[in-house]
Write a structure and sequence with these properties.
Blueprint (H helix, E strand, L loop, with lengths): L9 E5 L2 H22 L3 E5 L6 H7 L9 E5 L1 E3 L9 H13 L4 E2 L8 H15 L12 E4 L24 E4 L8 E4 L1 H5 L3 E6 L5 H8 L19 E7 L7
Parallel strand pairs: 1-10, 2-3, 2-6, 3-5, 6-9, 9-10
Antiparallel strand pairs: 4-8, 7-8
Helix pairs in contact: 1-2, 2-3
Length: 245
């Protein structure tokens, strides 16, 4: 069987962790600067997880008009704000405190009613983020990761969330050991002006390849939503994640 792969977007495969962080900061910084030239305020949405931590730390030293940046969170785990698994907590530590950005809109998954919290977050996005055709919000920059099972944001394989095109923010029920979450929905992720995907390590290779394959199953690999992205996509990965040895 012949499998055709096409990388949607620009691929930057870096040789080591240092150049991965440097390239990621460069690309995110450039996308933010370009957006700041066009708009008074910009809206960016940041993922959690471990991969972006050193990137956010380095990004915090970039000379940027941080006072014109609104920061949203791509997804959040239903844990207390100060839990070490909190995405908001990590982003606060690595980026918000050093840059002193205060215009921040967390997904409040620490609240007891996640459906309510999702609706509130949706209303915040409606108020704060500019929209385009179809009244869909347009984030200037979205930073996404990818899980070795093929998830992105908190859109997990074989769960209905990846097919939800009606909502902007979803309550994602807990499953097995995984806690419940809030997540931006595919409609809003796909409509970003710029998506930067960050991934390192050989264990991500299979999932990345499944996104690069021209045909495939969205339910099995929700990160395939990247193939529907309206704007630009840049993959900043290391050679191991790209299967490049
Ligand atoms: C999260 C995320 C998630 C993440 C991937 C990759 O909160 O877990 O936002 O979608 O990007 O799971 O995570 P790592 O960078 O930790 O591998």
């Amino acid at each position: 069987m012949i499998i055709t792969k096409v990388v949607p977007g620009l691929l930057i495969a870096t040789p080591d962790q240092e150049s991965f962080v440097e390239s990621a900061v460069q690309r995110i910084g450039k996308a933010m600067r370009d957006a700041l030239m066009k708009n008074d305020r910009i809206a960016i949405a940041l993922s959690g997880g471990e991969t972006p931590r050193p990137v956010y730390r380095a990004l915090s030293s970039e000379v940027l008009a941080w006072s014109r940046v609104d920061i949203h969170i791509v997804d959040e785990r239903a844990v207390p704000k100060d839990d070490k698994r909190s995405n908001y907590g990590m982003i606060r530590e690595e980026l918000l405190e050093p840059t002193k950005v205060t215009s921040v809109f967390p997904l409040e998954a620490w609240k007891p009613n996640l459906e309510e919290a999702a609706k509130e977050a949706e209303a915040t996005i409606r108020k704060k983020v500019r929209t385009g055709p179809g009244n869909v919000p347009i984030f200037d920059v979205v930073v996404l990761g990818i899980g070795d099972d093929g998830h992105t944001a908190s859109l997990f394989p074989n769960e209905p969330t990846v097919h939800d095109e009606a909502r902007l923010v979803l309550a994602v029920p807990a499953k097995a050991a995984r806690e419940a979450r809030l997540s931006l929905a595919r409609t809003v992720l796909e409509n970003a002006d710029n998506i930067i995907v960050l991934a390192t390590g050989a264990k991500k290779q299979g999932a990345i390849e499944r996104v690069w394959e021209v045909t495939g199953d969205l339910s099995a690999t929700p990160a395939r939503i990247l193939r529907n992205a309206r704007g630009g996509i840049t993959w900043v990965i290391d050679r191991a994640a790209g299967g490049l040895g």
